[in-house]
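Subject: DNA-(apurinic or apyrimidinic site) lyase

B.,
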Amino acid sequence: MPEGDTVRQAANRLHRALAGTVLTRSDLRVPRFATADLTGRTVLDVTPRGKHLLTRVEGGLTLHSHLRMDGSWRVYANGQRWTGGPAHQIRAILGNTDRTAVGYRLPVLELLRTTDEDRVVGHLGPDLLGPDWDPSLAMANLLRDPALPLGEALLDQRNLAGIGNVYKSELCFLLGVTPWLPVGELPAERAAQLLRLARKLLEYNRDRPVRSTTGRRDPNLFVYGRAARPCLRCRAAVHRADQGDRSRERPTYWCPVCQQGPAPAPGS
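Prediction pasted inline below.
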C-alpha cells in the first residue's frame, strides 16, 4: 500500500531513470490528456510531496500522479518485458533511449503548469520526509479538531503528509492507544512521542523494499493485516474494524489489551 516512504522510493526510481534525459516516448492514457505529447522535452526532476508525485519537464510542465491504493510506477530497460499488469491498466508511458517508466492503475494523472503545482499539493500539511517538515505545525494541525479520532486525524493529509492506513494502525499500537481515541485526549507524553515516532518509522523504511515497524522482516508489522492472529506483545487476538466516514472507511487493526481507548465491537 503506497504511503510516504514507498512514494518516495517510486520518485527516486523515476528520477534515476528519467531526470536529465530527453523523452523519446510519451503516452498519457487518460481522455483529458490523451493528445498531449512530451517527446523532445528534458525531464528536470521527479519530486515526491506526501503521497503525490511531481514529474517536471522543460517548458514549465509537471505531470502530477497519485498512487492511492494500488497504483504504481514501474521502470524497465528498453526491450524488457513489462510486468506491472495487463495493458488496459496502463495510464502513462514515459521513455528515453535507455529506460521506460510505465504507470499502472493511476487514479490521478494530470498535466499542469509547474507554476500551478500548488493547486494539487498546496493543501498538504508538512511532509514527514520532506524539507518542509515542521513538527510544531503538524501537531497544531492535528489538534485543530480535538474530538476527531486519532486514526482519522493521522490520515488527513492536510494535517501532515505521508501517513497511510498501515502506519496509522502501527503508530497507534506503538503509542498504546486505539485509533478511535480523540486526538485531544492523547496523553501529553504520548503526544510528544507521536511525530518523532512517525518520522522515525518513515525514515527507517524510506529505502527498504519491505516495510517493517517491528525491526524484523517476519513478522514485519505489529498489528496491520493480523486480524485474529496473536498480538506480538501480549498474545491476545488482534482485532479489525473499519474506520472513517462511510465514503472512505479503512480497515483498521488494534490490540484490545495493549491499546487503551474507545473501540468498536470486533468485526463491526
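The chain has six helices and ten strands.

T.
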